[in-house]
Design brief:
Length: 96
């Protein structure tokens, strides 16, 4: 799935969007909040565009790293989340 295919997901209420991310990618709310804040601080302030970037980042990350366990949860490790976000921003075109 790319962010273009995720338009119905993008429009979910906040709680349901977070729930989708946690169930699909195994994130906890703290990791999601860190990702959301990082994109916001990178001047991706429109919520729909930020959600597209969040989903694209999660897809990029799930394809480029081993999943932490058999349940499909992404594991970033201590301090690695920001490194992954920076790597993503260097290799992908972020929507603004």
């Amino acid at each position: 799935m790319t962010f273009d295919e995720s338009k119905p997901i993008i429009n979910l209420p906040d709680l349901l969007f977070v729930k989708y991310c946690t169930e699909t990618f195994g994130l906890n709310r703290g990791v999601y909040n860190t990702i959301d804040e990082w994109f916001y601080l990178e001047n991706v302030q429109d919520i729909k565009v930020r959600r597209e970037n969040i989903l694209d980042f999660l897809l990029y990350t799930s394809e480029s790293m081993d999943k932490g366990d058999k349940k499909g949860k992404l594991k970033f490790g201590k301090g690695n989340l920001v490194n992954q976000l920076e790597e993503y921003s260097e290799h992908q075109v972020m929507l603004v």
